[in-house]
Amino acid sequence: MEITFADVSRMTLFRGFDKDFVSLLDLFFVENNYPADTHLVEQNVLQDRFYLVIAGSVAVYQSVENRRVPLATLDAGQFFGEINLFDPGLATASVVALTPVKTLEISNEQFRFFIENKPAIAADFTFQLAETIVRRFRGSNTALIEELNRPEAIQKAENISRGMPA
């Protein structure tokens, strides 16, 4: 694998790690390349993998009533699938490559092996990952509250509670 320190040092997830950490990526992460329009993750399909985007861009979306609802565009230096490291399960969204994409990936099983074999480094990595999960959760929570407080959403909820058509 030809991932360099420059490739990962720009990621906030790896702030504070030195060049020796990059050599550990070779031991625990797998590099993959995907052409544009490839689905890396499918909503409602079992997932156990965490992805670091090294190059390219992906779109994250949810399928709702046969339409795509865009959630985010992630570029080099960003990541997705972090929940799968702790709790593999059905994906809550789909991820598709917008451009050719290079990733580093680690499965839940390989992550547990990483923790067992490099506990100090794994603890630092996990803490930084947890910070990002919390920030994303707070952002999603804020967006949901704003959406639920829109007058149209309030009226729709009141209609449903009265047994009227939404």
Secondary-structure topology with pairs:
Elements: H1 5-9, H2 19-28, E1 30-34, E2 39-41, E3 46-47, E4 49-55, E5 57-64, E6 67-75, E7 79-80, H3 83-86, E8 89-90, E9 94-97, E10 101-107, H4 108-117, H5 119-148, H6 151-161
Antiparallel strand pairs: 1-10, 2-9, 3-8, 4-7, 4-10, 5-6, 5-9
Helix pairs in contact: 4-5
Sheet having the most strands? 4 strands, antiparallel
Order of helices and strands: HHEEEEEEEHEEEHHH
Mean pLDDT: 81
Helix content: 40-55%
Q: How would you write the strand order of the largest sheet? A: 1-10-4-7
Number of strands: 10
- Any idea what the radius of gyration is? 19 Å
Percent strand? 25-35%
- CA-based shape: elongated
Structure annotation, total helices: 6
Instruction: Supply the helix-strand structural class.
Output: alpha+beta
Low-confidence stretches: none
Q: How far do the termini sit from each other?
A: 54 Å
Question: Summarize this, please?
Answer:
This protein has 166 residues and is α+β, with helices and mostly antiparallel strands.
Word description of this protein:
The protein is of the alpha+beta class and 166 residues long. It contains 6 helices and 10 strands. The protein has helices spanning 5-9, 19-28, 83-86, 108-117, 119-148, 151-161; strands at residues 30-34, 39-41, 46-47, 49-55, 57-64, 67-75, 79-80, 89-90, 94-97, 101-107. It has a 4-stranded antiparallel beta sheet with strand order 1-10-4-7. Strands 2-9-5-6 form a 4-stranded antiparallel beta sheet, with no helix packed on it. The chain has a two-stranded antiparallel sheet with strand order 3-8. The longest helix is centred in the C-terminal third of the chain and has 30 residues, at 119-148.
